[in-house]
Design brief:
344 residues; alpha/beta; two-stranded antiparallel ribbon
């Protein structure tokens, strides 16, 4: 199936084969994949996102997963809200910002017992990665030791791969996290740099890039994605995917906006399920080797759409409850993955 778009003719399977060849060449030569000329460019990615046959698009994206990632494997993670509310930033989507009247639960810091109970339950359920997530611009030097102590205990008492999401930390703080066993740092770029300024003014994409650079300098893997459905166009999403590729991130969580009452985005229309499916498939063409993780918003999607995504470019999921909303039931996720012939 082909589509004429901006004078370009795109065939999803042909593009998938070209991307797979580029990845194989990169792995043989160890040259920087994100700079490979034969990867998908922005216009081609936009044409793919608007491909007339969504199943053909997803099948081609799945072909890339099977060739460029661990075939049949779904990377799983779970999070716990380690500090809730009390945030002075002005992100338009976020229920935890104090300037919005959302009724969000607030607390300063979760204790070790509660974190360990959640971490242990996730490990028993087969989840691979676990992260504490804190609200606010960043965890202060005064508060960081509390979370360091928890990570140290988790490292001793579980076999989980530990991640952290604690805001715009500096390199010294990243070093301390690395010392207690944190191996991956999460800092969402959220959306394209162009669109970000319409949603947040209290920090910038440059601030986030500095945080990512600090984590990478300490030898951590990088998890960075964002939220779709905040009023951005598909072209914004394409630009976003290209920007993530240029950053060389390892994991890309895709969240669907859950409009929260009291936030500036509370009345924004929900995007359709097919648009979510198309966006995830497009991301796979742009980011062929990364873990593309379906995260927040899965609970409002039909199981059929989630299954299509797991065989359409997505190779990671966030399991369990989220920061300010309920997630999917783990038993349902395990059953669905087994029926799809996927493993964690």
């Amino acid at each position: 199936m082909r589509i004429d778009h901006n004078e370009n003719v795109v065939d999803a399977e042909v593009v998938a084969d070209r991307v797979i060849a580029a990845v194989r060449e990169y792995r043989a030569s160890a040259s920087p994949l994100e700079h490979a000329a034969c990867l998908v460019d922005a216009e081609e990615a936009l044409a793919l996102a608007e491909y007339p046959d969504v199943d053909a698009l997803c099948d081609a994206a799945d072909k890339i997963v099977r060739a460029c990632c661990e075939a049949g494997h779904v990377d799983t993670c779970s999070i716990i809200n380690a500090r809730a509310g009390l945030c002075g930033e002005d992100c338009a989507w976020c229920a935890q910002a104090t300037r919005y009247k959302t009724g969000c639960v607030t607390y300063n810091a979760i204790d070790l017992d509660e974190v360990f109970e959640a971490a242990s339950a996730n490990e028993r359920a087969g989840v691979r990665r676990f992260s504490m997530v804190t609200s606010g611009r960043k965890v202060s030097d005064k508060d960081l030791p509390h979370f360091l102590a928890i990570y140290s205990e988790l490292g001793k008492r579980t076999g989980l791969s530990l991640c952290a999401s604690m805001g715009l930390l500096d390199r010294g703080q990243m070093h301390k996290l690395r010392e207690v066993g944190v191996r991956r740092y999460h800092c969402n770029m959220e959306t394209s740099e162009r669109f970000f300024s319409k949603l947040c003014s209290s920090h910038t994409p440059a601030d986030k890039k500095a945080t990512i650079a600090a984590a990478r300098a300490e030898g951590m893997e990088i998890c960075s994605g964002g939220i779709i459905g905040m009023g951005e166009s598909m072209r914004d999403r394409v630009e976003f995917a290209m920007e993530l590729r240029s950053l060389g991130v390892d994991s890309v969580p895709i969240n669907i906006l859950n409009p929260m009452k009291g936030t500036p985005l509370e009345n924004i229309p929900l995007i359709g399920e097919e648009e979510v499916i198309r966006t995830a498939a497009m991301f796979r063409f742009v980011l062929p080797t990364q873990n593309i993780r379906f995260a927040g918003g899965r609970a409002r999607m039909s199981e059929a759409s989630t299954r299509r995504m797991l065989r359409g470019g997505v190779n990671g999921i966030m399991m369990g409850d989220l920061l300010t909303s309920v997630g999917n039931k783990m038993e349902q996720d395990r059953r669905m993955l087994a029926e799809l012939g996927l493993h964690t």
